[in-house]
Amino acid sequence: MRVLLKITDIIDVEVLQRIQDSFSDATGLAAVTVDYKGNPITEYSNFSEYCTCVRKESSNRDCCFQSDAHGGIESARSGKPSIYICHGGLVDLAVPIMVKGNYLGAIMAGQVKIDEEEMKRLPFGTSHELTDFSKNPEIMDLYDKTLKTTLTQVRSAADLLYTIANYLVEKQMIHIIQEELHNKNLELMEEVKLRSEVEASLKEADLKALQAQINPHFLFNVLNTIGRLALLEGADKTQEMIYAFSDMMRYTLKKEKNNVVTLKEEMEHVQNYLSIQKMRLGNRLNYLVEVDEMAEDILCPFMTIQPFVENAIIHAIEPNARGGEVRITADILKEIAILKIVDDGKGIPDDRIHKILDGTYEADGREKNTGIGINNANKRLMYYYGVDYGVEIKSELEKGTEITIKIPRKSLAGRGL
């Protein structure tokens, strides 16, 4: 979206006022600076008594504004100072303030008389004839007292103002461009930092830890459960559990050199994990997995969802004697897959959520391992898709937690996957 600059964004009004006052004192010309709508942004400098008297009547004031508007428009059209005759018979000038071809306003100056022969060489700043003040002695007397100069001096004054205005604009534009470059450098540094952190994490086997996210605690429970089932009942459930566990192992091992999977593959891995946990926890665990068929072929980083599901089991289901429910859904909203992992556990305090996501949360045993998995998953999502696609965690104490992950429908090849 294009941001429209205002004249006050480019020029310091206090500095401009001082320059304008000094210019008027040195030349005797009146001056004021207006925005592109013609509204004054500075105080009038050296405004003539003649013009002050003329503008007391609204009809005359309207004619003055029309003259100023004509001069400003002409200077904006040409991009150069415009010198013209106002309806009151005085010489005025308009110096445009331009940025990259855009008219932001003008310095209006003048209110002086010049030789009649020179006046004939100037255009009128209005479509109307000159206003006749011959029947108003007060105005005519003030007209006679108005400063008289030469066209050469008026042009020199216009050139001086044009040079000053351009200098102020160019100086401030350089400052703005430098500031924009500085901000872009900061953004680039943040991206480089994030990329370095992710790559360092991968090199330090953080991704391996994700691939082996089935931590010792879980493996111990699985093996114990398989042993009890084999001892106490027939082979069907034991076989089912072994198959699910084998599929999980196969999934983690075959993806060792390929970190991209379809959402369907990732969800099948989560299904296997939940089916094993269901056998272990029995009626204490209820779960639901629903995936929109349109989302199944979307590519995502390997082990995107499982760390959050494991976190729900460890912190929401296991500590509760009555157990609980975990729901995993994947829906399509325009060109984005919206993944949600929802549990009805005890919830997470806000301060802990921030620490988990930025990797500063520390705890003992399995809790710490899960935090690492969530932080890594969050960093990888932001690395591959940008900061707008990080993990969002909403939680209410004693009511549950909702994890939201957004995955765009686009290739991940550009990020080295």
Quick description:
With 417 residues, the protein is of the alpha+beta class. Helix content is 52%, strand content 18%. It has two domains: 7-179, PAS domain (Beta-Lactamase, 2-Layer Sandwich); 205-415, Heat Shock Protein 90 (2-Layer Sandwich).
Structural class: alpha+beta
The CATH C-level class name of the largest domain: Alpha Beta
Helix fraction, binned, reads: 40-55%
CATH topology of the largest domain: Heat Shock Protein 90
The average pLDDT is: 81
Which H/E pattern describes the elements? HHEHHEEEHHHHHHEHEEHEEHHEE
Distance between the termini: 32 Å
Walk me through the structure.
By secondary structure, this protein is an alpha+beta fold. The protein folds into two domains: 7-179, Beta-Lactamase (2-Layer Sandwich); 205-415, Heat Shock Protein 90 (2-Layer Sandwich), CATH 3.30.565.10. 52% of the residues lie in helices and 18% in strands. The chain is built from 14 helices and eleven strands. A five-stranded mixed β-sheet has the order 6-8-9-11-10, with helices on one face. The chain has a four-stranded antiparallel β-sheet with strand order 1-4-3-2. Strands 5-7 form a two-stranded antiparallel sheet. A hairpin with a 5-residue loop joins strand 2 and strand 3. Helix 7 (151-203) packs across helix 14, helix 9 runs antiparallel to helix 10 and helix 11 (263-281) runs parallel beside helix 12 (306-317). The chain is rod-shaped. The chain starts with 6 loop residues before the first helix and ends in a 9-residue tail after the last strand. The relative contact order is 0.07. Mean pLDDT is 81; it is low at 413-417.
